[in-house]
Design goal:
170 residues; alpha+beta; four-stranded antiparallel sheet
Length: 170
Amino acid sequence: MRRRGFTYTELLCVIGIAVILWMMLLPNAVRARNRADDTRCTQNLRNVSWALQMYAQDHNGLFPPRLTDLTPRYLHDMDIYDCPRVAAAERRFPNEPPVTPEGEPDYAYRPGLAHDDHPAEALVWDRGPWHRGGGNVLYVSGAATHVDAPELNRLNAALAAEPTWGGGAP
C-alpha cells in the first residue's frame, strides 16, 4: 500500500525539533543584534568625534557649545545623535515616554572643552546604561570605549552638578 503525506506523529516530531532549534538559536540572534547596536553606537560616537575635530580646526581648537551645532555643516545626518539601543527600546515600547526629549541627542555632551585639553577627558557619552550594563564614552583624544554603569552615572552626575559643564544641557 502506498503512503500519502506524513502521519500526525511525524508532523509533531518535526515541529517539536524545529521549536527546539528555534529556542536554541533565538538567544544568540538577540545577543548578536545587541552587539551590532553596541558597535553602531560606538561608530556614531567616532563620527561625532571626526565632526568635533573638524569644528575645532575651524574654531581655534574649541569644541562647540552644543553638540547639535555640528549639523548641518559637519554632520549631515541627524540620526547620528540617536543611540540605536534607545531607538530600538522606543520602537518596542511606543506608549512609554521617550528616553530623551524630541530633537535632543541621546548622548550627553560636556561643553567648554578644547582640542588641546587632556585627552582622557570624557567629551560625549550615553545618557544611560544601555550597552551591556554600561555605556559608550568618547574622549577628547577621539577614542571611544565602553565603561561600566557607575562611571556613566558619575559622568551624568558631574554634568548635572557642574555649571561649567553646561548644567546638563547638551
